[in-house]
Amino acid sequence: xxxxxxxxxxxxxxxxxxxxxxxxxxxxxxxxxxxxxxxxxxxxxxxxxxxxxxxxxxxxxxxxxxxxxxxxxxxxxxxxxxxxxxxxxxxxxxxxxxxxxxx
Length: 103
Fold this sequence. Notes:
The chain is 6% helix and 37% strand. It is mainly beta. The protein starts with 6 loop residues before the first strand and ends with a strand. It comes from Thryothorus ludovicianus (Carolina wren).
């Protein structure tokens, strides 16, 4: 079964240095969907290890299975327009509407 449009939870504003968790979920897809987050239209990279993450300044953890995007400490650089895409290899992938987070 192809995924339906996912529901994205993105805070509209956050204080610098706080923990922010965004979530993305859809329930129709079978097999279960994987989720990809985008910021300003660019796909976010999945963090693979602390060493590589520090080198590229990644401040978040993205879980493609659960659809969560977790920022341990948000910075002004994390301000932007976020959306998530659900796909399971069947039918078209589905995106939620873009939401802006201001840090």
